Amino acid sequence: MSLFDLTGKVAIITGSSRGIGKAIAQEMAAQGAKVVISSRTQDACDVVAAEINAVTPGAAIAVAASISRKDQLEALVARTRQAFGRIDTVVCNAASNPHYGSINDITDEAFRKIFDNNVLANHWLVQLTIEEMIERGSGSIIIISSIGGLRGSQTIGAYNVSKAADMQLARNLAVEYGRKGVRVNCIAPGLIRTDFAKALWDNPDAERRFNDDHPMGRIGEPRELAGAAVFLASDAASYVNGQTIVVDGGSTI
Q: To bridge 21 with a disulfide, which of 30, 34, 93, 234 should be the other Cys (CB 3.0-4.6 Å)?
């Protein structure tokens, strides 16, 4: 059996109606996992689940949930258990960035929203799912961070601070739960062609400047993140814990 095989595993992926989350869900399903598609809009989730089920019947369900609402995350977890009986992997992918510009100019409301959605929501979802992983002695939690968490920025500073916090959240959870069979890791994407990052790439001049300075000469695509998530969810990563895997085509070098 392949080390990357996910047959019998169940994964919740937040923010999976598009972009990186959707690509992760598609690839996990392709490797045999049951996947739960979740974002704020039920219709959008339904479309992605239908696409996956057209290829792998019965592999996906759609459960809308806002990560800013703990009660909705509770309902997401309950619906997953009702449908599939277990949760093996949680991918905390959904995030927010309502502010572009100096961190000095950010409003308290925007700052709180960034940390509530990018850090606190991840903490909630871990709390809601980790006990059964501990009881079973196995599980994988994957937090989608960002290379922004490794450096400063003049335009997305508050977002970067939250993503650095995600890396530390993963490290601390890894220390607390590693001996109980639960692994916690981050993936730190570089600039990926998603709607979420559109403000950073949707300009021919900006993209050309990025490409000119990039070691691979291009922006990443969502599917190029999915392999790292499959790896971290699988037995191939059974001794990977508390790490941040950078997937940026070389931006940080």
A: 93
